[in-house]
Amino acid sequence: MHLKYESFVREPLVDGNKDYHQVSEDIISPIEGKPGRMWYVGFIFSVLLLCFGIFSVGWAVYWGLGTWGVNRTIGWGWDITNFVWWIGIGHAGTLISAILLLFRQGWRTGVNRAAEAMTIFAVMCAGQFPIFHMGRVWDGFWVLPLPNSRGPLWPNIDSPLLWDVFAISPYFTVSLLFWYSGLVPDFALIRDRAKTKFRKMAYGIASFGWTGTAKNWQRAEALWLVLAGLSTPLVLSVHTIVSFDFATSVIPGWHTTIFPPYFVAGAVFSGFAMVNTLLVLTRKILHLEEYITIGHLEAMNKVILLTGSIVGVAYLTELFISWYSQSWGEMAAFQWRIMGPYWWSYWAMMTCNVVSPQLFWVKKFRRNVPFTFVMSIVVNIGMWFERFVIIVTSTYRDWIPGSWSYYSPTWPEVGFYLGTFGLFFTCYFLFAKYFPVVAVHEIKFVLKTSGDNYKKGMEQIDNQSTEDFIHIATTHHDEEHLLELPHH
Amino acid sequence: MAIKKFAVAAYDDEEVLFPAVKKVRSSGYKIHDVYTPFAVHGLDEAMGLKGTDLHIAGFIYGLCGTSTAVGFISWIYTSDWPLNYGGKPHFALPAWIPITFELTVLFAAVGMTLTFCYLNQIMPGVKKHIFHPRQSDDMFVMAIELNKHTSEQEVMAFLKTTGAKEVNIQTAEAGWWYGRWDKKEPYEALNLG
Predict the structure, then answer these.
(1) What is the pLDDT of residue A482?
(2) Is B39 among the domain residues?
(3) Distance from CA of B70 to the nearest CA of A (A)
(4) Alpha carbons within 13 A on the beta-carbon side of A266
(5) Contacting A residues, span 19-38, partner chain B, CB-CB under 8 Å
(6) Collapsing DSSP states into helix, strand and coil, what is residue B162?
(7) Domain range holding B35?
(8) Which residues of A touch B88 (CB under 8 A)?
(9) Hey, is the C-beta of A216 within 8 angstroms of any chain B C-beta?
(10) What is the pLDDT of residue A15?
């Protein structure tokens, strides 16, 4: 039909000898079988963690925020640290699903479904923190511009904290729509294969009655392209606005213009690390090594290396600017960050985020699965410390030495954080069991250009001289004469 | 909708499907639809379908979002309840950019998705006829609408020549209806004979 082909030099995106049916078989059959013992252990553990989180939050809501370690000097502690950490993790999913779609990066097809699921669950976790930080959570709807009996008095539209509300809720909604609209054709596949009555009914509802007509697909591709185009500036705006929560205030250490790009880079950095954590486990447990290949992990490790370096440059720029400003407050804030009572958090951040990702310059490390897994956790520890450093070590010594303070979390704060892990992994375990973790229709779409067995047929073409290639291509219009493609 | 008769041809390769679609069209048969397990690029053109205007709808929804945000915020801050925040002007457009942008994206995305569902006639609870159980797996299925005058044998023989792996005649509901996917529909009994 056309002359489009991909060089065999490029690594295949799907390994093994696959045809369309085999792809469906490989990805859908774990959904149709019984989950393994590991799944039950993990799922029950997550639910218990979630229950402990609910108890901790309930405790804080019942007795008030006095049960937390935050005080008048350090108003934001673990809660906002965790909020920024989770929301940042979410950004990688959108980067993979939207930005890499616009850049036509074929490798996103193997990982986008799981990464987007991660986004949605991470944003759900992130949202809990500002909501319960309100203290009187039953008044939480006051952030919405609803007609009310107080005037009506509207929320402060000029405040970055309100922008946050308006950034995160559309971000969640748009990510959910993007994710689910891609899931619909795969649910239709499960429905059409289903042998049991209940599965047929449940996936029949979930698939919205999708049949995959030419017009269906045409509109779907238009929808996904526009949603990708919308999500791209959206994801950048979300973390920019999160950084405005800090950058628009006049607190030394926060009041910097570097924050938006620095936060976005950090978000992508931690998000890709979390994608690696999840996918290394998922591909192993569900036997998806041929779809989520070492090549995929390497590509993500390259992104981690790039964004980790951007974050490193940002840290150094911050230090330089604090000295260059010759402002006493700025210089003191950074001096205390490095050498004050919280020195350990600063150096944990520096080691995990700046030094350790540099190991990824070595190709052997980038393609090593256990190393990737360990590194993904190191990076996320580092990024948690980054947010802790920004929030706590900018506030604990303020303008009046008499109010200088120190902050440690109490058990309800720690329990809240653990509880969001429970929420996240409960959702992820359910996703991995009942949803196709790899986008089946997208894999089928790239199979004939990027599948291992099909790429091998390209070798002879690649070795042809350009003149031969053009000559054959123009005399035979049908591709079948040109390629000896393996038929299934 | 209506229950109609279809000649159904199932192909196992999109590269066989394309010339088949061309042949069927040039022979004057009416293609009801072609069902594929994934987006096959160029199939819409081969079938003579027009492009979609969904993105234009998205643009219009986006504009609605922009004007809703700017209109609502400026009404609040300049007319309904003007407040002095640190001496900032009441009409503080730069400070409204984030929310205006977010609402633009939200309206465009939600509006487009709902329009997408409406146009494709998909919704939880909607049921449609499945011509081939593997049309979402690895088969590319073409359904041709038959009328009183078409000879079933002739169509089937013709479809065989286009490279179809399976050819049959089905009586089916052409549109959509509310129903459960685990239940058989009454008309499906007609296909057993």
Answers:
(1) 47
(2) yes
(3) 11
(4) 35
(5) 19-21, 24
(6) coil
(7) 3-51+130-168
(8) 158
(9) yes
(10) 78
What is the predicted pLDDT for the residue at A8? 61
**Count of domains in chain B?**
1
Q: Is B144 helix (H, G, I), strand (E, B) or coil?
A: strand
| Nearest residue in chain B measured CA to CA from A440 | B38
Q: pLDDT: is B82 or A463 the higher one?
A: B82
Three-class DSSP category at B66: helix
| Res. B82 pLDDT band, cuts 50 70 90 | confident
CB atoms within 10 A of CB B93: 11
Task: From chain A, pick out residues whose CB is under 8 angstroms from the CB of B52.
Answer: 215, 218-219, 222
Beta bridge partners of B145: B6, B30
User: Is A318 inside any structural domain?
Assistant: yes
Non-local (6+) Cβ contacts of A250 within 8 A are: none
In a domain, B140, yes or no: yes
Q: Categorize the per-residue pLDDT at A475 as very low, low, confident or very high, splitting at 50, 70 and 90.
A: low
Among candidates A153, A200, A217 on the partner chain, residue whose Cβ is nearest the Cβ of B181: A200
| Range of the structural domain that residue A96 is part of | 20-139+241-446
**Helix, strand, coil share of chain A (percent; to 5):** 75, 0, 25
Compute CA distances A320 → A326, A328, A335, whole Å. Answer: 10, 14, 12
Residues 129-168 of B with CB under 8 A from A: 130, 133-138
Interatomic CA distance for residues A85 and A384, integer angstroms: 6
The closest CB to that of B81, out of A153, A198, A479, belongs to A153
Of all residues in chain A, the one with the smallest CA distance to B45 is A214
Q: Which residue of B has its CA nearest to A206?
A: B124
The tokens for A26 are 């490989």
Taking only the tens place, the pLDDT of each residue in A120-163 is: 999 999 999 999 999 899 988 888 888 888 778 888 888 899 99
Subunit contact A445:B33, Cβ cutoff 8 A: no
Give domain status of residue B144, yes or no. yes
3-state secondary structure of A257: coil
Question: Beta strand pairing status for B140-145 and B30-35?
Answer: antiparallel
Is residue A14 a part of any domain in this protein?
no
**Residue in chain B lying closest to A186 (CA):** B136
* Cα–Cα distance for residue pair B46/A175, rounded to 1 Å: 33
- Indicate whether A476 pLDDT > 80: no
Given the structure tokens 């003579």, which residue do they identify?
B48
> A24 to chain B: nearest residue by CA?
B137
A383-403 pLDDT, tens digit per residue, is 999 999 999 998 888 888 898
In a domain, A287, yes or no: yes
- The confidence band for A9, taking pLDDT boundaries of 50, 70 and 90, is low
- Tell me the C-alpha distance between A351 and A357, whole Å: 9
Is there a contact between B18 and A1 (Cβ–Cβ < 8 Å)?
yes
Closest Cβ–Cβ partner in B43, B113, B117 for A214: B43
Q: At residue A213, what are phi and psi to the nearest 5 degrees? A: -75, 165
Is there a cis peptide before residue B186, judged by omega within 30 degrees of 0? no
Q: Tell me the mean pLDDT in the region B136-165.
A: 88
Residues of B in contact with A442 (CB under 8 A): 38
Cβ–Cβ pairs < 8 A, chains A and B? 205
Residue A337 lies in a domain: yes
Spatial distance between the Cα atoms of A200 and A188, rounded to a whole number of angstroms: 10
Tell me whether residue B122 is in a domain. no
The enclosing domain of B135 has a CATH number of 3.30.70
Compute the C-alpha angle A246/A251/A252, nearest 5°. 110
Q: Does B74 touch chain A (CB under 8 A)?
A: no
Total tally of structural domains belonging to chain A: 1
Q: What is the ipTM of this complex?
A: 0.93
Of A481, A141, A106, the C-alpha closest to A291 is A106
